[in-house]
Amino acid sequence: MNQSKKLAAVKLSRVTFRATSRDIDPATVKEPAGPQTSKGISNVKLSQNDGSTKPKDVKKPGPSISLRGLLAAQRITLELKNRAALRRKSRSRTPNRKPVTIINEQVPAGSANPPQRFPYAQVKELIQEFLMTRLRNVTYNPDTSGDLTKNLCEDIKKMVRRYTPPRYKLICNMAIGSKNQEDILMASQCLWDSYSDNITSCSYENSTMFCVVTVYAVYFE
């Protein structure tokens, strides 16, 4: 019984398989795409050749290097190498020395050695402010410039005397002139004690005039 049932099932499966295979429409089946034929390839090549062909870019020759330029470049490189070598030698010869700090300034022999020296930096700031306040709105006049110079010198000496140590003599020199796009150079030379004596100088100018002030402080023994 069991064998007959198995044979019947096999026959039924064969029948169903054949029935399903017959129901398929052959028109709906698509053939696989095969390789292109030689005609198609030739047509593609012809279509490519029919178009306008552009000429290939021709490379232009680069600039030619002359022998003179090469020699000049070699000469420059040799000079740079020699300079670098000299710098290295000079650095290797000079040892790294520490900076020397002067604790007490030594007084030269034969100097008066005053207990308090002339404060030239502070005096310079005072004179600069004084000139700005007095000459800011002054117009140059050759007739009154002489009296103006004398008055300003006296006022400057009185002002500087307040900050000057004792036994110092003050000499004030002033020059006032018109400002007409001209250059002027002023210089002075003195024979004195470079340690105890000192000097300070400053200048001021406005739209019409210039003024140069020099104050000498000489220590009197």
From TrEMBL:
<dbReference type="GO" id="GO:0007018">
    <property type="term" value="P:microtubule-based movement"/>
</dbReference>
<dbReference type="GO" id="GO:0045505">
    <property type="term" value="F:dynein intermediate chain binding"/>
</dbReference>
<dbReference type="GO" id="GO:0005737">
    <property type="term" value="C:cytoplasm"/>
</dbReference>
<protein>
    <submittedName>
        <fullName>Uncharacterized protein</fullName>
    </submittedName>
</protein>
<dbReference type="Pfam" id="PF03645">
    <property type="entry name" value="Tctex-1"/>
</dbReference>
<dbReference type="InterPro" id="IPR038586">
    <property type="entry name" value="Tctex-1-like_sf"/>
</dbReference>
<dbReference type="InterPro" id="IPR005334">
    <property type="entry name" value="Tctex-1-like"/>
</dbReference>
<dbReference type="GO" id="GO:0005868">
    <property type="term" value="C:cytoplasmic dynein complex"/>
</dbReference>
<feature type="region of interest" description="Disordered">
    <location>
        <begin position="19"/>
        <end position="64"/>
    </location>
</feature>
<comment type="similarity">
    <text>Belongs to the dynein light chain Tctex-type family.</text>
</comment>
<feature type="compositionally biased region" description="Polar residues">
    <location>
        <begin position="35"/>
        <end position="52"/>
    </location>
</feature>
